[in-house]
Amino acid sequence: MLLRAVYSRVPYSHRKEFDRTQQRLCRDYRTPGYEVQIAGWNLAEKDEACILGVWEDERAFFHFMESSAMSSDSDSQQLMHSSQISMWSPTHNFTGVTESAPSFQDQVVRIVQITVMAGRQEHFRDTLDHVWEPGMTDAGIERGIFLEPAGAEEDNRNFLIVGQWEQWAHARFYLTNFGELLNKARPDLDVAALEGRVMELEPDWCF
Question: 2-205 has which CATH code?
Answer without folding.
Answer: 3.30.70.100
